[in-house]
Specification:
51 residues, 1 helix, 88% helix
Length: 51
């Protein structure tokens, strides 16, 4: 079998290197979004209760 071109292997190494970092960032973003959503909902509830 022919060896893969070096460009291809480089791309693979890079994506493997970056994916845990991307996953971590995505997780942090999701947590941030969830917290923002919770805060928003709490504020909306307070508004509803005042009315």
């Amino acid at each position: 079998s022919l060896p893969a071109p070096s460009e291809f292997t480089n791309i693979n190494e890079q994506s493997l290197h970056f994916s845990p970092l991307l996953l971590m960032t995505q997780e942090k973003l999701l947590i941030m979004l969830r917290d923002k959503l919770e805060d928003f909902c709490k504020e909306e509830l307070k508004k509803d209760l005042r009315q």
